[in-house]
Design brief:
The protein is of the alpha/beta class. It has 2 domains: about 5-95, Rossmann fold, CATH 3.40.50; about 100-215, UDP N-Acetylglucosamine Acyltransferase, domain 1, CATH 2.160.10. It is about 15% helix and about 30% strand. An 8-stranded mixed beta sheet has the order 7-10-13-16-19-22-24-25, covered by helices on one side. The protein has a 6-stranded mixed beta sheet with strand order 3-4-2-1-5-6, sandwiched between helices. A 6-stranded parallel beta sheet has the order 8-11-14-17-20-23, with no helix packed on it. The chain starts with a strand and ends in a 17-residue tail after the last strand. Mean pLDDT is about 95; it is low at about 225-230. The protein binds coenzyme A. Coenzyme A binds near residues 136 and 154.
Length: about 230
């Protein structure tokens, strides 16, 4: 049994898949969930209590919690996921790296702290995954791809080889990205898109082939520090 005791930051739908994955991996004992939404307090996510909001973090730490996982997913904007990650780190908690037993992660891939590889996902040899990245259910990250910090590769998306995804970018559910494409920081690729050319930072693209829809509303930078992945 692991000696890690984990708090989940964020109690939305993604938290269910995360908790299921942590339990399946036997990665940590789960202390509870923190969420800003007071209507959730006293409820449970898969039997794990939602005990309060971020203000409880000092108490949680004093009770022996030593790591955290971000329980929030996203449909495009990853700033809230970054905020929760930074919060956990600020309290000197270790980011828990979660690799579901039915995810396939090559021993030749590198996965950064706090990243989550969900059931059925594949991260192939030579890929580099930064910190606080979600490779969601059934998504494929081919060889030599580089995913920077706070990226979300949503359910069923497929990245061909040597794709680079910038910090905080979102690749939508079921999207396909052609080999050697560069997706800029904070960019959003719509669900089902086929990306055949580079995507500029903070730009939303969608369709087949993917075309620019608009700019992203919140353009504060994700890139601060080093996103070189290391297996935690
Ligand atoms: C691309 C996306 C970010 C656009 O969101 P939005 O800016 O709110 O866009 P809207 O819903 O206002 O739609 C704007 C236009 O784009 C079209 N559009 C929206 N999403 C589209 C998509 N994925 N593919 C093709 N066209 C799309 C709409 O039909 C609409 O067209 P119209 O102007 O001709 O009527 C969003 O639709 C999307 O696909 N997000 C990803 C969701 C995801 O990955 N979820 C998985 C979580 S695990």
């Amino acid at each position: 049994m692991s000696n890690l005791v984990c708090v989940i930051l964020g109690g939305g739908g993604h938290a269910q898949v995360l908790i299921d994955s942590i339990q399946a991996q036997d990665a940590a004992v789960i202390y509870g969930v923190l969420d800003r939404d007071s209507s959730l307090w006293g409820k449970e996510v898969l039997g794990v209590p939602i005990v309060g909001d971020d203000l409880l973090l000092p108490e949680v730490v004093s009770r022996g919690v030593n790591c955290f996982a971000v329980g929030m997913g996203s449909t495009g904007d990853n700033h809230a996921r970054k905020r929760l990650f930074d919060l956990g780190v600020a309290y000197h908690l270790a980011p828990l790296t979660v690799i579901h037993p039915r995810a396939v992660c090559s021993k030749w891939a590198r996965v950064g702290a706090g990243s989550q590889l969900m059931p059925g996902s594949i991260v192939n040899a030579g890929a580099t995954v930064g910190m606080n990245v979600i490779v969601n259910t059934g998504a494929i990250v081919e060889h030599d791809c580089v995913l920077r910090d706070h990226v979300h590769v949503a359910t069923g998306a497929r990245l061909a080889s040597t794709v680079e995804v910038g910090p905080g970018a979102h690749v939508g559910a079921g999207a396909v990205v052609k080999q050697c494409i560069v997706i800029g920081e904070g960019a959003v690729v719509g669900a089902g898109a086929v990306v055949v050319e580079d995507v500029s930072a903070f730009t939303v693209v969608a369709g087949v082939p993917a075309r620019r829809l608009r700019e992203v509303e919140t353009q504060s930078l994700f890139s601060c520090g080093n996103s070189e992945g290391s297996r935690s």
